[in-house]
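Sample intake sheet
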Amino acid sequence: MPLKQEQRLETGTTTVGLVCKDCVILASESKSTMGYLIASKTSEKVYQVDDKIAITTAGGAGDTQAIIRLMRAEISLYKMNRSNEFTVKAASTLLSNILQGNRYYPLMAMLIIGGVDKNGYHIYSLDPVGGGEEDDYTSTGSGSPMAYGVLEDGYKKDMSREEGIKLAVRSIRSARERDIFSGGKNIVVAVIDKNGLEFVQKERIDEIAK
């Protein structure tokens, strides 16, 4: 039986993550769909969950937003009781366990988690049942095949921050131009380094995207 309009969860998205010489970059477009309806042109898909850790989301909005709330709460509780830094690997493991714990009724989510800790710069991609893998660059969502084409061509080890930002914008732009479920008004780019997380200004992104 076909889903009613309100039951069609938005699944179209493009997100990317890449490791550079002195930072991690996470990026997304901002379109969310409900069936063939554009539900929002300014959806948030890059979420900060700790000082130097963030997550990109692709999938059902309700599921992904619940995951973000749970991750923020669990990390805060951990840091209240311990003085230790919460590593990116620990955050990835926590996220994987949350997803695996729901494997019989999977959360509709494809996630990239990235950040900086005492061990360096890391990104992990996770599937809806908690399978995770660390890599130098990755992409999720319906536009990921187009984004991967740009990433495969342009990525190199020890990229500078500026090179990484430009590559992230190019990969998202490519997906927006070819994937009907990717788009929206904005390309969002977050840069995480040893000082914390900073979002690139829209004017700078628009300049690169031209």
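Comment: The first strand starts at residue 15 and ends at 19. The radius of gyration is 16 Å.
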